[in-house]
Each structure stands twice: as structure tokens, then as C-alpha cells.
Amino acid sequence: MAVAEHQQNVSNCKIGLSSCDTSRLTQSEARESSIAEQQRNIADCKDGYGACDRSKLTPLELMAVDFAWRQRNVSNCTSGWTCDRSMLTASEITEVNRAQDQCNGENCESGWGDCDHSKLTVPEARRTVFAEHQRNFSACKDGEETCDYSNLTPRETKVLTDAEHKRNYTACLKGRGYCDFSRLTAEETRSIQANGSSSQ
User: Which pTM value belongs to this model?
Assistant: First the structure.
């Protein structure tokens, strides 16, 4: 039991738990615990999490922490997250602007997230218009509320009209789904009547 309790205390000290009793550690265990604590502090400072104590860092560790912070800040700016643009270098600002423009172009083209059409290049604007048109056509084909029939070409309108006419005829013929007999041609009406007579 005593051995198990000692090992548990060593483990608690290494991972920084408040239940750690440093007075019960051997010299080597105390040294290992101190190294582990320093590594946790370095990680906290690099990641921006936890209780970072910069006063405990060596000059070399401070350089590594500052470098990691700058990289994280650039990454946050590039991803559109909260960041400090005032800390960016000229080349980093160029990199961030390029990434944000690319992200905006992808958002506009895909219809996801924020899209600023005014920031699109001519090729991006063309791709976005085409993608938006395709999404609208698909929405109309699927009967979605977002469909805007006024944005369809005459050919697309005819395709949808033909598809709806075929669906309506099939529904009337099979007696399943919504059927509007007024939209049938005379020949289709006769065909349905003949089919009904033959099935009786």
C-alpha cells in the first residue's frame, strides 16, 4: 500500500495535480517533477492555454514561445479567427490577405459561409455566377423553396416543364402521387382512360 501511495504521489507531482506532496519525493523524483512542470509551462505558453509563467522561461524558451505565438497568430488571421493583425509583418499580411481572398472565393462559389462579391476577381466572379445558377436550377428541379424561376434559361425552364409533365402523367396513369388531369394532353387522357378500361 505504501509503495502504491508513493507511486501515486510521484504521478500526481509529474502531472501537476494539487494533491502532490513534494516533501515525499526523492531527489531524482523531485528533479523529474520539476522538469515535467517546466515542460507543461512551456507548452501552456506556446499554446496560449493554462497558466503560462513567462518568468520561469529561459531566453531560448522565450524565443521558442514567441515564435510559436507568432505562427499561431498568423494561422488565426489566415483562418479568419480572432487575431492581432498589428503583429503581422508585411509578408505575413500579404499571406493572410491572399488566404482570406481565397476563402472568400470558395465561400461564394460553394454558397457556404460569408461571401463578399465585391472582393472577387473576374474569374472567381464568373465561377460564382455559374455555381449559383447551377444551385438554383437544382433547387427548382428538386422543388425547393429557394428556387427562383426568373433566373432559369428558356432551355432549363423547358427541361423542368417536360420533367413535371412526365411526372404528372405518370401519377395520373398509375394513380399514385399528385395528379392534375387538366394538364394532360387529349392523347394522354385517352391513354389513361383506355388503360383504366383494360384493367377492369
Answer: 0.54
